[in-house]
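dumping this here so i dont lose it again. seq + smiles for S-adenosylmethionine
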Amino acid sequence: MDAEPTVKGNPSLLAIGWPRKAFDYIRSYGLGGFAEQIHHRIATWHGERKFGVSTSGFIEPEELGIQNPDAQAYAALGYEHLRRALPEIPFPDSQVVFLDYGAGKGRALVCAAARPFRKVIGVEISAELVAIARQNLAQMKHRRAARAEVHYSDAAAFPVPDDVNVFFLFNSFIGWTLVEVVERMRQSHVLHPRDLFVIAFNQAEFDQCVRGETWLRKVEENAYRALYRSV
Ligand SMILES: C[S@@+](CC[C@H](N)C(=O)[O-])C[C@H]1O[C@@H](n2cnc3c(N)ncnc32)[C@H](O)[C@@H]1O
């Protein structure tokens, strides 16, 4: 997650504060966890700088005035994960229409738009985050996608565009909202049969939800994400 550390006050405290924090972190998560956290911090710094965007932070749904009880908090997926996940899409870049359900400040969209995809689409329930995502896409450097758009909508009410062939989810929503979204994906596949690919990060609920679906099968998974493809 991307909650940034803040060290306020006397700069001399920095020298004392950081080794202490590092020690506490190692004690809780081990050296491997610490190394992963350092990698994550560097990847975040590098990604934000490379694209000239601002996508970090952690925001609870209540702070955004979101009413849907299924909504999860805002936190962007690490750049290091996005860098690995996007090349796993099994279609030529020029044919990819990428939809991020719960686009937040647009980090996944920015990384997708840095590839020569046909289109990237975000759906986000918070008006505040929609505005930030649009701003990030407008100002980003290294953009190669032909088109990019962010829709202000509850994902459960968003009609799946006929040309979307890659769905991306990272901890966006659970419960009825997720059930409805999966049903919309299924209907879209029935009405407009095409090869569909799903990247789902941290989505045990998504896995549960699609377990009985005959049109979609899991093709791979690791500790962070699962990949699905239509049958
Ligand atoms: C964990 S963040 C993911 C951010 C983004 N996908 C990324 O990786 O950078 C989850 C996002 O889903 C949004 N969200 C929650 N419920 C939603 C819903 N029903 N429809 C659309 N967006 C939703 C939240 O506001 C939040 O921005």
